[in-house]
């Protein structure tokens, strides 16, 4: 969260001329503008051990010579693909086959990014272990085409525009997946949305999952029970039920949450942001009763009364931090969670 005051690009020039052992260069969140491509090219040529390169929205076609010079590059991030990729020079740019992680891939064209993204990523898709498609502007079909080739994927970040069809493709093709995050995006008819249908498919087939963080348009007890039955290694579960006009199919979710807490005994982090009435005081009691290893919890729109928080606080002996948002408790009673001096209550932040 530090600010970087940029004067010029001399630092990168000096680094490229004098360093031969650099393994990682990350300027992805600095918004630096004086990044010389010649300097990057020299750096890639001189540092044969360069394994990670995270930039800030530099066009892939501008990195052509740089990527040719790298011999050990495994992680690439902050690269953009735009409408100029239709030009001959853009079509000749290839991602290195040494890559196993492709992060923050931006699509800057005017239309959907399906063809542009797939043409670049599919040739190396089978090698990828980590993939971030949140900025790729892919449709449901575009996601499915690409993810069908990612047999060795272990970590995936997408928007919920991946749709249930996209999650079903993950279930078929990405059996080694350990980390899945589906952030909230701008949903329209073309792009789709995530519900219990997609979650059940993933949980039933990706049994190595350790992290699930999803924004869903609908969820039911059966989906939570399916996750509990098939993902015994789950240690971090975060679920947000989007507030829209669609009527949810099944609530309250007490039975599913109970199954989740019992079936995933290694849960250390839990975030639930639902709607009023979707988890009763009994559901909060079960989280406390079975959350023996829970260290961090976030509750949004949960419970019915102060009693629910009290029942929760009677359990969770390992709890270190509790975040509460939009719940019905009277603020003075929240301090019951602090009586033993081991927890803190925080309002805010995202899941």
From TrEMBL:
This is F-box protein. One of its GO terms (biological process) is SCF-dependent proteasomal ubiquitin-dependent protein catabolic process. SUPFAM superfamilies: RNI-like. GO terms for cellular component: SCF ubiquitin ligase complex. The lineage of its organism: Eukaryota, Viridiplantae, Streptophyta, Embryophyta, Tracheophyta.
């Amino acid at each position: 969260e530090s600010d970087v005051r940029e004067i010029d690009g001399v630092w990168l020039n000096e680094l490229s001329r004098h360093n031969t052992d650099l393994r990682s260069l990350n300027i992805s969140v600095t918004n630096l503008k004086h990044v010389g491509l010649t300097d990057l090219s020299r750096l890639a040529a001189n540092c044969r051990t360069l394994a990670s390169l995270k930039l800030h929205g530099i066009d892939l076609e501008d990195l052509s010579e740089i990527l040719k010079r790298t011999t050990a590059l495994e992680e690439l991030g902050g690269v953009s693909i735009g409408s100029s990729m239709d030009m001959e020079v853009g079509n000749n740019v290839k991602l290195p086959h040494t890559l196993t992680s492709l992060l923050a891939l931006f699509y800057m064209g005017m239309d959907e990014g399906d063809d542009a993204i797939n043409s670049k990523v599919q040739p190396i898709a089978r090698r990828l272990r980590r993939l971030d498609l949140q900025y790729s502007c892919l449709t449901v079909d575009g996601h499915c085409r690409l993810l069908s080739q990612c047999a060795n994927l272990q970590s995936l970040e997408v928007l919920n525009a991946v749709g249930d069809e996209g999650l079903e493709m993950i279930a078929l093709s990405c059996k080694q997946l350990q980390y899945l995050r589906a952030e909230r995006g701008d949903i329209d008819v073309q792009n789709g949305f995530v519900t219990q249908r997609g979650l059940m498919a993933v949980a039933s087939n990706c049994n190595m999952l350790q992290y699930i963080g999803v924004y869903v348009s609908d969820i039911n007890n059966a989906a939570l029970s399916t996750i509990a039955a098939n993902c015994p290694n789950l240690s971090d579960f975060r679920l947000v039920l989007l507030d829209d006009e669609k009527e949810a199919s099944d609530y309250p979710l007490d039975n599913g949450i109970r199954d989740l807490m019992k079936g995933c005994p290694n849960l250390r982090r839990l975030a639930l942001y639902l709607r009023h009435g979707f988890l009763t005081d009994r559901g909060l009691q079960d989280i406390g009763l079975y959350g023996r290893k829970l260290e961090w919890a976030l509750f949004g729109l949960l419970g019915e009364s102060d009693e629910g928080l009290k029942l929760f606080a009677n359990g969770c002996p390992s709890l270190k931090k509790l975040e509460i948002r939009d719940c019905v408790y009277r603020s003075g009673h929240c301090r019951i969670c602090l009586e033993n001096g081991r927890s803190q209550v925080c309002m805010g932040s995202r899941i």
